[in-house]
Amino acid sequence: MALLTLGINHRTAPVELRERVAFTPERMSEAFAELRAASGASEAAILSTCNRTELYLAGDDDCAPLVLRWLAGFHGLEAAELEEVLYIHRDADAVRHMMRVAAGLDSMVLGEPQILGQLKDAYALAREHGGSGSFLSRMFEHTFSIAKRVRTQTAIGENPVSVAYAAVSMAHRIFADMSHNTALLIGAGKTIELVARHLSDAGVKNFIVANRTLERAQALAESRGGRGILLSEIPGYLAEVDIIISSTASPLPILGKGAVERSLKKRKHRPFFMVDIAVPRDIEPEVASLADVYLYTVDDLRQVIEENVRTREGAAREAENLIADGVQEFLSQLRALDAVSTLKQFRQRAEVLRDIETEKALRALRNGGDPETALRSLARGLTNKLLHEPSIQVRKATTEGRTEVTEWLRELHQLDMLDADATTTPEKI
User: Can you state the percent helix, strand and coil of the chain, rounding each to 5?
Assistant: First the structure.
């Protein structure tokens, strides 16, 4: 079974392209159906976050060109445009890549834990849509095991650092004391939950949470002593907030330039600090052109993130060693499974030959044949049939110069030991 991973991430593609290649929840069912049909892969999984879109496939052939054309077509892009930023990993490299992603070693924030949960969600989604079979399931499960090992055996998860944490750290550069500021959080997912926690730790006391579902917004807001509103209500509250951090799965911008301009007038041009973590973006890029607005995207957080990541570099080297061991463990498991499958086929074939020769012997006995003659005939026939095809293949391989086949045959049947036994006299024993 061949394994293939294709994707783009924050290192290979700008946010403008990443947001065009992101998969929205509404189109996931369609994507799974089309991907497997277009690629011919027997198993498939899709990971789509603000920093990466990756496809994991298992099948008998290298279907990379087919997947590239499908991915570009699905998102209305030219294949050549996507090919420039696409990375492809095969087999052992694909396994290593998934483990590095799960451990946070390939993240914008080194060692961030959020990606592991996103990868688990991608696995659950693949299972829900029938994309994950025995091969990908084993790879995902083993990957999660290695990621846990990395977390428990290294310091990669110490000193909490994430995109959410970096966003709050950047807010500190605009507002030295945030205890008097009001924060508007757009969205109510895990990233926004982290943002709320970090803002609270930084001193923010006043929260407004806007979400498509009012109940979810209220639940998160009330946990921080704030209020929940619907996305449609945002314009009415803009003038009273100072910090806006957004992370939703909306395919279209939620906050436009016009609404921000009107709010600035009401605020008498007190500054806005905004971070748009979403891909596709929630805040229109034109908002950044307004005076008194400090708008940042996930790409703008890179410098803050790089400062916070230095303490994890030693742990990352330890993690790479654990992952290297994990890759070898997984490949060994696959080889063992392949050996089991081969041995099962070998045994089944031997049992078929055994049954054929046994039936011949029984038929001879039922017809009054001599038992000794029937037994000798059974033994001879079974031996000839078991050795016939292997003998042909060994002679063929030797003729072709593949002498290692004879060496394997001697090893399998321990013929060297038999030769030694044959030359050992009773006096030497």
Answer: 60, 15, 25
Q: Out of 50, 194, 196, 374, which one is annotated catalytic?
A: 50
Tell me, yes or no, if the two domains 2-158 and 163-302 fold the same way.
no
Q: How far apart are CA 223 and CA 77, in angstroms?
A: 42
Catalytic: 63? Answer: no
The fourth-level CATH superfamily of domain 2-158 is: Glutamyl-tRNA reductase, N-terminal domain (3.30.460.30)
Kindly state the tokens that stand for 171. Answer: 């807010």
The SS3 call for residue 182 is: strand
Residues counted in the chain: 429
For residue 277, what pLDDT is reported?
92
* For residues 209-218, average pLDDT: 96
Say how far apart CA 335 and CA 333 lie, in whole Å. 5
Q: If phi over 0 gives left and psi between -120 and 50 gives alpha, with beta otherwise, what is residue 167?
A: alpha
Question: pLDDT of 107-158, one tens digit each?
Answer: 988 888 889 999 999 999 999 999 998 889 999 999 999 999 999 999 887 7
Q: What pLDDT shows up at residue 338?
A: 66
Homologous superfamily of domain range 163-302: NAD(P)-binding Rossmann-like Domain (3.40.50.720)
pLDDT digits (tens, 9 = 90+) for 251-285: 999 999 999 999 999 999 899 999 999 989 999 99
Strands 206-211 and 182-186, by their bridges, are parallel
Angle at 35 between CA 252 and CA 337, to 5 degrees: 130
Q: Which of 309, 314, 265, 367 is CA-nearest to residue 163?
A: 309
For residue 267, CA distances in Å to 271, 290, 352 come to: 8, 14, 86
- The CA angle 6-247-276, to the nearest 5 degrees, is 95
One-letter amino acid of 32? F
Residues 6 or more apart whose Cβ sits within 8 Å of residue 5: 54, 55, 56, 57, 88, 89, 90, 94, 97, 98
Check: CB of residue 209 under 8 Å from CB of residue 226: yes
- In which band, very low, low, confident or very high, does the pLDDT at 429 lie, cut at 50, 70 and 90? very low
> What distances in angstroms separate CA 127 from CA 47, 121, 245, 330, one per listed residue?
13, 10, 32, 20
The percent of residues in the chain predicted with pLDDT above 70, rounded, is: 95
Q: What is the mean pLDDT of residues 339-363?
A: 81
| Contact criterion met (CB below 8 Å) for 8 and 85 | yes
Q: Structural domain boundaries of the chain?
A: 2-158, 163-302, 335-420
